Amino acid sequence: MTPNQIELVQSSWEQVKPISEQAAELFYGKLFDLDPSLKPLFKGDMKEQGKKLMATLSLAVASLTKLESLLPALKDLGRRHVQYGVPDESYQTVGQALLWTLEQGLGEAFTADVKEAWTETYVTLSTVMLDAAHEQAA
């Protein structure tokens, strides 16, 4: 990720944070529309799950300039997702739902450059998680 991409992700996230509860609802609604088979993986209170999602995203976005400090938490999250039964292909679906949610929340501010920066961010973070998940499965 370039410094400009990191700045785009961080500044656009600041615009999403005030609507984080609605963003979480949009995200999970879209996720389950895209793949209804994922819904049973979420057994708890979805409002709480949404808060956890937004807190995790906030931490990840804030840590983009020092990604190495985030790696242990990402790897742990990837390993936990194996225990939850999360299939590998769902990472792509989550990425789609995330980008769609950001587009809804940011409107015109979701430019091609912002989309590219978020895509690069998601691919970077999810690859670390998937690699850790595969290490655990091996």
TL;DR of this structure?
By secondary structure, this protein is mainly α.
List keywords for this structure.
Globin-like; globular; 6 helices; 0% strand; 138 residues; oxygen binding; mainly alpha; 78% helix; single chain; oxygen transport
How would you portray this structure in words?
The chain has one domain: Globin-like. Helices cover about 80% and strands about 0% of the residues. It is built from six helices and no strands. Helix 2 (about 20-35) packs across helix 3. Belongs to the globin family. Keywords: Heme, Iron, Metal-binding, Oxygen transport, Transport. This is Bacterial hemoglobin.
Number of helices: 6
Termini separation comes to 29 Å
At the first level of CATH, the class is Mainly Alpha
Label the CATH architecture.
Orthogonal Bundle
Radius of gyration over all CA atoms, rounded: 14 Å
- Global shape: globular
Proportion of helical residues: over 70%
Give the helix/strand class: mainly alpha
Please name the CATH topology: Globin-like
On the 0-100 scale, what is the average pLDDT? 93
- Which residues form runs of ≥5 with pLDDT under 50? none
- State the order of secondary-structure elements, H for helix, E for strand: HHHHHH
Number of strands: 0
Which homologous superfamily in CATH is the superfamily? Globins
